[in-house]
């Protein structure tokens, strides 16, 4: 009698543990009917054990992917081996609301799910246990880390002041276009180097804060004049590089004159009042004579220098 009482006590403890463990436990039979529905499932689904018991899992949760999940269940029953479903494969199986205090990243609970066969005393398998783990903390932390890494990667490619691509990113874009040109031909492709005239006077007269405002406004003008697929970057200081794929030198000159005349005819609003500036531009179309990217850059830079020498506020196209 004492042994029987001990067994009943142990059974009671086990049942109490199953009800209060912080893991979802669902036992279903071959007809997918629920025979055990623990406290975790009650609390997160709002469906009591009494209401769920002896009902089809798919009637309790009609939004489940029935065909997909039945195939999983049948495979476990036939093969007698568990199946694991990671949140990275499928964010959740049961659409439970997330109650984690990790601010707005997850509306639903992220879940790892294990479907295990339950062997009877005679070795047969007629029931399955679905184990649901709440991994919202892990998933949201990983998502936040991935977002931060993407942001850092983006920042490493962007000039912080103008929000254009930086010099390193511009160099990579030039390498890609040049390598494709040498391997497959095609084109034409043009490179524009642009430099704000007498920018040092702006800094000396108004201060570097105003100089930064001028650079930011000029960057917006370059971007607004560009097409989808063009590549606009800050080369350094007041110098900018614009890669115009599939554009010959005549098309590049049209682009340059659009930018130059727009800047010439406007006043740039700054914290110290309106300022007038001009820009000089040099153009080089990629050709077989270019000695690599450095040669292409040097030719565009030489055309820019010629524009400066000829009086500034003009576009010069390299021969």
UniProtKB/TrEMBL annotation:
It comes from the Bacteria. Its EC number is 2.7.7.65. It catalyses: 2 GTP = 3',3'-c-di-GMP + 2 diphosphate. Pfam families: GGDEF, PAS_4. Residues 187-319 form the GGDEF domain. One of its GO terms (molecular function) is diguanylate cyclase activity. InterPro entries: Diguanylate_Cyclase, GGDEF_dom, Nucleotide_cyclase, PAS-like_dom_sf, PAS_4, Rev_trsase/Diguanyl_cyclase. Signal peptide: none annotated. Its cofactor is Mg(2+). PANTHER family: DIGUANYLATE CYCLASE DGCM-RELATED, REGULATORY COMPONENTS OF SENSORY TRANSDUCTION SYSTEM. NCBIfam families: GGDEF (TIGR00254). This is diguanylate cyclase. It comes from Maribrevibacterium harenarium.
